[in-house]
Amino acid sequence: MSKKHIHFELRGDQQDVALIRLTRGAKRNALNDGLILALRDLFEKMPSSVRAAVIDGEGEHFCAGLDLSELQERDAGQGVFHSRMWHAALECVQYGPVPVIAALHGAVVGGGLELASACHIRVADDTTFYALPEGTRGIFVGGGGAVRIPRLIGVARMTDMMLTGRVYNAVDGERIGLAQYLVPQGTALDKALELATRIATNAPMTNYALTHVLPRIADQPADQGFMTEAMMAAIAQAAPEAKERVRAFLEGRAAKVQKS
Ligand code: 1HE
Asked: Quick one: which atom of ligand 1 is closest to the CA of 69?
C-alpha cells in the first residue's frame, strides 16, 4: 500500500513486521502536513497481524525535518494547532500498537530527529548525522522534541545543539544516546528488520509493557513507579503465554541467554 510520499508493506512469513518508508527523497523526506497525517493514520490503522514496525527514508537522507515551505504563512494560533498535530501523530508512533524501530542514515535533523526520537529503538548507519537547525532558523522544536530528546541525551546537550547548531556524527550520536545501534553504511534497514523480526516473537504483553508502561514509570516519582511496576509485573506474569514461556525454559525447551 502506498499513500502519497509514504510506502507501507508487510514483511515476514507471518506478515508481522511493517515497513514504513518515507518516499519524498527529492525533498529529503521533509515532513509536510500530508506526510505527518499519513503517519498518524498508518499507526492508528495498523493491521492486527503486525507485531513490530520499522521506519526508514528513501534516498540519501532519513529526514530533513519539517517542510519549511509550509511554515511561511502560519500565524501564532495556527502554529499551536500545527505543533499539536505533530504531537498527536508522533504519540501514535510512540504509544501505538507495536514497538517501532527507526533505520537511520544521512540527515536526521529537526523534525526528522523528533520522529526518530518517538521510535523505541534507533539503528544508525555510519553516514548518519544529527542536528536541530531550528535554533539557527529562528524557530523552536514543535514535534515533541523538547520532551523526548532531553530524555535521550539530556537538557544540556540539546541546548548546545540548538544554541550552536552543533552537528553530531554517527559515532558521537551513538555515544551520547541518540541511537542504540551503529552499523556500517547501507545496513541500517537490514539491522532494523532483524531486530523487528526478533521483537515480533516477544509476548505482546511484554512489548506493550515496554512501550506504554516503562516510559510512564520513568516519569513517575519513585514511590509511584515501584507500585506501577508491581502492577505491570503481576499482569504480565499472569498471562498464559508467560507461564508457557517460563515452563519451556524450566523444561529445557527454550534458549538460554548467550554471552555476546
Ligand atoms: C527541503 C527541506 C526542508 C530539503 N523543507 N524543503 N530542517 C532543516 O532546516 C534542514 C534543511 N535541509 C538541509 O539542511 C539539507 O537539505 C540536507 C542536509 C537535509 C540535505 O542536503 P542536500 O544537499 O542533500 O539537499 P538540498 O539540495 O539541500 O535539498 C534538496 C531539495 O529538498 C531542495 O529542493 P529543490 O526544489 O531545490 O530541489 C530543498 O529545498 C528541499 N528540502 N530540506 C523543505 N526541511 C515540528 S517542528 C520541526 C521543526 C524543524 O524540523 S525545523 C528544521 C528543518
From this structure: 44
- The amino acid at 213: V
What number of other Cβ atoms are within 10 A of residue 189's Cβ? Answer: 20
Instruction: Enumerate the H helices of 95-203 as residue ranges.
Output: 111-118, 134-137, 145-153, 155-164, 170-176, 188-199
Q: Mean pLDDT for each 10-residue chunk of the chain (260 residues)? A: 85 94 97 96 96 98 95 88 97 98 98 98 98 93 98 98 97 98 98 97 95 97 98 94 91 91
| Domain boundaries, position 234 | 204-250
146 C-alpha vs ligand 1 centroid, how far in Å?
21
CATH of the domain at 234: 1.10.12
Assess whether 114 carries a catalytic annotation.
yes
Do residues 15 and 129 share a domain? yes
For ligand 1, atom 36: residue with the closest CA: 27
Measured in Å, residue 110 CA sits from the centre of ligand 1 at 10
Q: What is the total count of domains within the chain? A: 2
